[in-house]
Design a protein that fits this description.
It is a single chain. The chain is 32% helix and 24% strand. The protein has helices at 12-18, 21-37, 115-127, 130-133, 148-158, 173-187, 197-201, 253-256, 260-267, 280-284, 306-323; strands at 6-10, 40-42, 48-52, 58-67, 72-81, 95-101, 108-113, 140-144, 165-169, 190-193, 206-209, 228-231, 247-250, 278-279, 298-301, 327-330. Strands 1, 2, 3, 4, 5, 6, 7 and 16 form an 8-stranded mixed sheet that branches. The chain is globular, with a radius of gyration of 20 Å.
């Protein structure tokens, strides 16, 4: 029975100070192991959505998970704007929170802002798979998209490898030039802005696609032998090319099939579960082998696991308690 009588609010600013890349890698890998062990209970249905398009372009998503091994239980809720041209999913001006409660009593524990943990989880949970699927000595990194997702991916990949060149592209020349200048200085590596996606992908050893585009961004023929392509969004690599890759690995078939773009790819016959090599949990647990040849072209595609979001929120809650961070909110009690 917890002695806590109030609810801890962990702000965005707090999360920036309390959660780092190595923390995210460690928590995401632990959760993959939990999935492999079958110790995670997901909500039914796994995702609840409220979409109001006409006049508002407003989207609510609600997901929940119970992690027996911690134990932790939480509900993730976020609201964003998307009119087909502007999407605020990765921006600070959308609502993003995880509500945690004590799984033994149901008492509220915390409300955690997840803007930072969402972005970092999205990148870390996919980049983590490079431990098993990445090239041996990658020299060139290609970034297709340099928003919050692409930047987080750069932080994650750069913590694993030392590159000789990093290429980047974005919709606007001024944003990619500014990005290249900033990260060249911070990493001590040449970050080179390129005009086209093809210029970024061709010849790169690791490619990360993290745009907000609803259209196909990269093409399979551009991916060289031995490269690993990391897809963090809807259609970063042309679905027509998935079956031509040597290995396709995803975070969860169950969650990906809920996404309309992935479901359309499967229903159209471009890709099937039989053509899937593995889920990341199978690599982490040792059930499946990772890269087996230097020339294998490998696709890592993730949609995101709410179990990892809840685990990171619980990590942030515990670290906030340890560091004396966060703001206490009154819980519903009379005393």
């Amino acid at each position: 029975m917890t002695e806590q009588k109030e609810v801890l609010f962990v702000s965005y600013r707090d999360t920036l100070d309390l959660l780092g890349v190595e923390d995210a890698f460690r928590v995401c890998e632990q959760v993959y192991r939990m999935h492999a062990a079958g110790s995670i209970v997901l909500a039914t249905p796994p995702s609840f959505k409220l979409d109001v398009a006409e006049g508002f372009n407003n989207h609510w998503h609600v997901k929940g998970a119970f992690l027996k091994d911690i134990p932790a239980t939480g509900v993730r809720l976020y609201n964003y704007y998307d009119d087909g041209a502007r999407n605020t999913v990765g921006m600070l001006d959308c609502a993003r929170y995880i509500v945690l409660s004590d799984p033994r009593t149901g008492e509220p524990l915390a409300i955690v802002d997840e803007h930072w943990s969402y972005v970092l989880r999205s990148a870390a949970s996919a980049v983590l798979a490079c431990k098993w699927l990445g090239p041996k000595n990658p020299k060139i990194l290609g970034l297709v998209g340099i928003g919050s997702m692409g930047t987080a991916a750069l932080r994650c990949v750069a913590s694993m490898y030392r590159f000789e060149e990093i290429r980047c592209t974005s919709r606007r020349p001024e944003t990619r030039s500014a990005f290249a200048e900033k990260w060249s200085r911070e990493l001590g590596v040449a970050v080179v802005p390129r005009e086209s996606v093809e210029d970024v992908v061709r010849g790169a050893d690791i490619i990360v696609g993290g745009t907000t585009s609803g259209e196909v961004v990269s093409r399979e023929p551009w991916v060289k032998p031995g490269a690993t392509f990391i897809s963090l969004a809807r259609r970063e690599l042309d679905p027509a090319g998935w079956a031509k890759m040597d290995k396709v690995v995803i975070d969860s078939w169950e969650f990906n099939i809920l996404q309309k773009e992935f479901r359309k790819t499967v229903e159209s016959g471009l890709f099937s579960r039989e053509q899937l090599y593995a889920e990341i949990q199978e690599l982490v647990s040792g059930k499946k082998k990772g890269r087996e040849r230097e020339d294998e072209r490998i696709l890592i595609h993730t949609t995101g696991l709410v179990s990892q979001d809840v685990a990171l929120a619980h990590f942030l809650y515990q670290r906030a308690l340890e560091k004396g961070r966060g703001m206490w909110l009154p819980a519903a009690h009379l005393s």
